[in-house]
Specification:
The protein is an alpha/beta fold. Helices cover 44% and strands 19% of the residues. α4 links the parallel β4 (85-90) and β5. The chain starts with a strand and ends with a helix. The structure holds 4'-phosphopantetheine (PNS).
Length: 165
């Protein structure tokens, strides 16, 4: 039984993330999508609880996928879950470079933890959570980029927070 983790800040989860989740779920017996803190991203648009709620809605249809949050070190979470694989997505060489570096850091902490980097599918290479946040700020339709299950929840939260321009 191979357990994998797909970690990220998911602020918010996009169809690009779902594409990676769907493909990774076919490769591994169990996949944990872990909503985490990225110390470099100082002011997320959505709270960890909201991001988790969006992720939960988006992964509900996958039998072997679970959503959780973790605020500590990723390798400690891998220990707790007895996971042997980290899944990351890469849209371009910049993503690949960053994930390659991070894989070496994580392997330095936990030598038996492998990172599998999946190339983004062509239709999602131009999109990211930061683009989603920009579109949310400017009230642009989100259906092409966010899972249908989360569009309404994202819209409602953005309205409440008055982050619309
Ligand atoms: O979606 P992101 O923001 O690129 O995800 C980055 C994330 C959250 C996976 C990364 O920042 C992370 O692993 N944070 C947890 C702390 C950690 O374990 N850092 C690496 C070893 S120091």
């Amino acid at each position: 039984m191979v357990t994998a983790i797909y970690p990220g800040s998911f602020d918010p989860i996009t169809l690009g993330h779902i594409d990676i989740i769907e493909r990774a779920a076919k490769c591994f017996d169990r996949l944990y999508v872990c909503v985490m803190v990225n110390a470099d991203k100082k002011s997320p648009m959505f709270t960890p609880e909201e991001r988790m709620e969006f992720v939960k809605k988006a992964v509900a249809r996958f039998d072997n996928v679970e959503a959780e949050t973790w605020s500590g070190l990723l390798t400690d979470y891998a220990d707790q879950k007895q996971a042997t694989v980290l899944v990351k997505g890469a849209r371009n060489v910049c993503d690949f470079d960053a994930e390659y570096q991070m894989s070496l850091i994580n392997k330095g902490i936990k030598s038996d933890l492998e990172t599998v980097i999946l190339p983004a599918s062509a239709e999602y290479i131009h999109f990211s959570s930061s683009m989603a946040r920009e579109m949310i700020r400017y009230r642009q339709p989100l259906e092409k980029y966010l899972p249908a299950e989360v569009v309404l929840a994202v819209d409602e939260s953005a309205e409440q927070k008055q982050i619309r321009r």
